[in-house]
Amino acid sequence: MIAVWADLRRRKLHKRRIKSGNPERTARISGLIAIVYIMLIIAAHTLAMVYFENFDYGDSVWLTLTSLTTVGYGDISAATTMGRLSTILILYIGGIFIVGKMAGDYFDYQSLRRDAIKNGSWSWYKMQDHIIIIGSKRDSELHLSRLITECEKTDATKGRSVILVSESFDGVLPETLHEFDIKYVKGRGNSPDVLEKTGVKNSAIVVILAWEEEDQISDGYAFDVICRIRETGCSAKIVAECVNDDNRQRLTNAGATLVLRPIRAYPEMIVGGLINPGSTDILENLFTATGERIVRTEGDLSGSWADIVSNHVGQDLGTPVAYRDAESGKIVTAPPGSTDISANALFVLGG
């Protein structure tokens, strides 16, 4: 009998998984139905006590509630055959049904919730001050791991929950990303339903990765996502990757806080650029060598770092940013000004 009941529960749960796209809504409806059943049971038994036992309504309600809650004070009780039969049928059998239904609905809800969270269909619309990462066409575990790690160790972003929007993982996040305890929503960032599930309206930071880092059509996708986010009334800081530099101003006008080129090897630049506005412009110029560049000059050099920097700047030779230690061969970046150095190469930022 127990095995048959368990099989029926499994089949029922399977049907609910197919039909229910919103476990929370299903749970609320089941809860309301259970409340209606309980009210009907109370009303039916109260009327039965009035009719069969000739109790007044106050005593009938009292007997019904003490029996239903199994308190059973015993100060009054059903004495007639029909009154007792009504109590057995309405309260005992009906109560067992309600308790069983409520327990079954609760376990169904928990199972549906676990599945929904795992496959990315759960809604996190109640979240506040969180970070949303809207993924690309082909998201990389390593890239996302480094990006999330940077969020966790930077003072301005650590401690915030992270929601990832992606279609790259067949509905199940890799174990490496699970370790970060991030929330997952399956879909694309330009879908209103997906954005609603992320709770975007109450988010603090939204990162929009380029759909395809070498295709400028991705900028149109980013523009669409930014517009949809701002249409919700969201005031979050938005970081958007832009493939074509000609589209940067367009994304800024749409509502992006920071626009930068896709640099998959350095996801840390996204967080760094958000915390230190303008820093990405400097780094991008260095990467592309379209403006300033770092030049290495060979030769022995010694003295305080402050004097060396001052002499180079004063003679319009550029700004030293690092040196190669003559003894160890290591590259030392931006030492304190009072440091006495012994170098055999100098790295200078200049035009």
Descriptive notes:
With 351 residues, this protein is of the alpha/beta class. It has three domains: 118 residues, Helix Hairpins; 158 residues, 3-Layer(aba) Sandwich (Rossmann fold); 58 residues, no CATH class. Helices cover 49% and strands 17% of the residues. The chain contains twelve helices and ten strands. A six-stranded parallel beta sheet has the order 3-2-1-4-5-6, sandwiched between helices. Strands 7-10-8-9 form a four-stranded antiparallel beta sheet. Strand 8 and strand 9 form a beta hairpin. Helix 2 crosses helix 3 and helix 2 packs antiparallel against helix 4. The N terminus is likely disordered.
The number of helices is 12
Computed over alpha carbons, the radius of gyration is: 33 Å
State the total count of DSSP E strands: 10
The 3D shape can be described as: elongated
Please report the first level of CATH classification, the CATH class of the largest domain. Alpha Beta
| Alpha-beta content class | alpha/beta
The portion of residues forming beta strands comes to 15-25%
- Largest sheet geometry: 6 strands, parallel
Work out the helicity level: 40-55%
Regions with little confidence, pLDDT below 50 for 5+ residues: 1-6
CATH topology of the largest domain: Rossmann fold
Order of helices and strands: HHHHEHEHEHEHEHEHHEHEEE
Mean pLDDT: 85
> Per CATH, which architecture of the largest domain?
3-Layer(aba) Sandwich
Sheet with the most strands: spatial strand order: 3-2-1-4-5-6
**CA-CA gap between termini:** 84 Å
Estimate nothing, just give the exact number of structural domains: 3
CATH fourth-tier homologous superfamily of the largest domain: NAD(P)-binding Rossmann-like Domain
